[in-house]
Every structure is written in structure tokens, then in C-alpha cells.
């Protein structure tokens, strides 16, 4: 009985993986930042690939915890990634405080970023949305590397105009969403197929992690750019 159940379970998992694999894959990064008042921040973030948690990020009162949930990268490299993420988070919270002051935005403040890409059997798609206090604020269109305001407000228009003034950042974001992110998914699929014996050949796991942490760091940079340009006049 137990054996049959196990076999059914394994079979349904294999079928599920096949159906899932044929239709849809996605890599999503989420960052939630809460600023109860000036100089105080709580930040949570994670990355998921096909719904599986790949990275987590947490920042509270200067205490920082970021984890890779698969031991794919050497500890040396991982320590370097953590350093740059910490640097990013410090810049991020300082700049939110500057912008809030400049644009006279009142605390408490919630900044929510949701970004990633999706791979279908017949194409791909990407998304990057920023919410301010739970309301849609900005969206990045990778097709024409343009930020558009989602809120009908002077601050959203101002921020978009500022962001779009820097083609270096918008083009690199476009490249990240349309190529790096999609390649990450493809590499992940290859790894999965290799591990289930569908495909022969060696896959280099550290490379995959390099890409995915690079992605996290790059998104950090993109948000940082968002805030940097928003903070300037
Ligand atoms: C990732 O973080 C978001 C926001 O905190 C949360 O809603 C979601 O459940 C998390 N995903 C996983 C797989 O833990
Ligand atoms: C850091 O996060 C990881 C993953 O969420 C968790 O397992 C670990 O206990 C956390 N460490 C600290 C010091 O909070
Ligand atoms: C992919 O195929 C689905 C139907 O199977 C269709 O709805 C969708 O628009 C197609 N996407 C592209 C990018 O062609
Ligand atoms: C870019 O594309 C989006 C979505 O199609 C559109 O709303 C926006 O007006 C476009 N911006 C420019 C400058 O073409």
C-alpha cells in the first residue's frame, strides 16, 4: 500500500513537472520596505524560481540577513554578494529618507517592488512594478525601456521623468529583464532536466547562482537608481 502511494506520488510529481515545464516558468523578486519614521527601516525580500524560494533578504534596525537557500555558490563568493547587498540596503534606506523629505511624503512609508520574468512555450514576458503605500506607483516597460507612472500624481510623473532621463539604467534594466532573467530560467530548466536524467551533460551550478545573485544585486541597483534620480533635482 505504502509503495503504491509512493509510486503514485512520484508519478504525479513527474507529470506535474512535465506539464509545468512545458507551459510556464517564472523568476520573481519581491522587496518590501517599511519605514515607520525617518531613519528607521524594515526590509524583507525574496526571490523565487517556479515558486521555489531561492533567496531571502531581511533587514531590521541595521541587522542584516540575506540567505541563499541552495548551497550553489562558494562561501567566499557568497560573502562578497552579502557585502554588496548590505551596501545597497543602506543606500536604499538613506535615499528613501532623502526623497520623502524632498517630496514631502509623510511617514509611515511602504515601498514594494515586484519584478521578474516569465517564460512560456511560445514566448516570454517581464514585469517591474513599484507600489508606494500599497498603491500602484510606477511600472517599467521593458519593451521600450520606459518607466510610466501608474498614479495620477505630480510625484509619480516627476519620478518617471527623472528615471527616464538615464538611458544607461533603463537599458541595463531592459537587458536584465529580457535576457539575464530569461537565461536564468533557462539554465535552471537545464539543471532540472539534467538532475532528472532527461538531459546528459554537466551543468555548472555556481554559474546559475552567480546569475541569480547578480540579478538580486542588479535589481538592488535599479531600485537604488530609481531613488538616486528621484532624490536629485
Ligand atoms: C516572498 O515574500 C513575500 C513578501 O513578504 C511573501 O508574500 C511570499 O510568500 C514570499 N515567498 C515565499 C516563497 O516565501
Ligand atoms: C537568516 O535567514 C535564514 C533564512 O531565512 C534563517 O534560516 C536564519 O536563521 C536567519 N539568521 C538570523 C541570524 O536571523
Ligand atoms: C502563447 O500561446 C497562448 C495560447 O496557447 C496565447 O494565449 C498567447 O498569446 C501566446 N503568446 C505569445 C507571446 O505568442
Ligand atoms: C512604452 O510602452 C508602454 C506600454 O506599451 C506605453 O504605455 C508607453 O507610452 C511607451 N512609452 C514610450 C515613450 O514609448
From TrEMBL:
Transmembrane segments: 207-228
A GO term for molecular function: signaling receptor activity
Gene Ontology CC annotations of this record: extracellular space
SUPFAM superfamilies reported for this sequence: MHC antigen-recognition domain (SSF54452)
Key words, A-Z: Glycoprotein, Membrane, Signal, Transmembrane, Transmembrane helix
Domain (MHC class I-like antigen recognition-like) ranges: 5-190
Superkingdom in the source lineage: Eukaryota
GO biological process: negative regulation of coagulation
Pfam families attached to this UniProt entry: MHC_I_3
Signal peptide: 1-21
Stated name of the protein: MHC class I-like antigen recognition-like domain-containing protein
Amino acid at each position: 500500500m505504502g509503495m503504491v502511494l509512493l509510486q503514485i506520488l512520484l508519478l504525479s510529481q513527474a507529470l506535474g513537472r512535465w506539464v509545468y515545464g512545458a507551459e510556464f516558468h517564472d523568476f520573481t523578486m519581491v522587496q518590501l520596505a517599511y519605514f515607520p519614521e525617518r531613519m528607521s527601516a524594515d526590509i524583507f525580500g525574496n526571490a523565487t524560481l517556479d515558486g521555489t524560494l531561492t533567496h531571502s533578504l531581511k533587514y531590521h534596525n541595521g541587522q542584516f540577513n540575506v540567505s541563499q537557500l541552495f548551497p550553489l555558490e562558494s562561501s567566499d563568493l557568497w560573502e562578497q554578494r552579502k557585502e554588496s547587498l548590505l551596501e545597497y540596503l543602506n543606500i536604499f534606506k538613506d535615499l528613501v529618507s532623502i526623497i520623502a523629505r524632498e517630496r514631502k511624503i509623510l511617514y509611515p512609508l511602504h515601498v514594494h517592488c515586484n519584478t521578474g520574468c516569465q517564460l512560456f512555450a511560445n514566448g516570454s514576458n517581464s514585469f517591474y512594478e513599484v507600489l508606494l503605500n500599497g498603491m500602484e506607483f510606477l511600472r517599467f516597460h521593458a519593451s521600450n525601456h520606459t518607466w510610466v507612472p501608474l498614479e495620477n500624481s505630480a510625484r509619480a510623473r516627476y519620478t518617471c521623468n527623472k528615471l527616464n532621463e538615464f538611458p544607461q539604467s533603463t537599458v541595463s534594466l531592459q537587458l536584465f529583464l529580457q535576457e539575464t532573467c530569461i537565461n536564468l530560467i533557462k539554465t535552471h530548466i537545464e539543471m532540472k532536466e539534467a538532475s532528472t536524467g532527461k538531459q546528459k551533460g554537466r551543468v555548472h551550478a555556481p554559474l546559475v547562482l552567480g546569475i541569480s545573485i547578480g540579478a538580486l544585486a542588479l535589481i538592488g541597483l535599479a531600485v537604488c537608481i530609481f531613488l538616486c534620480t528621484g532624490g536629485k533635482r
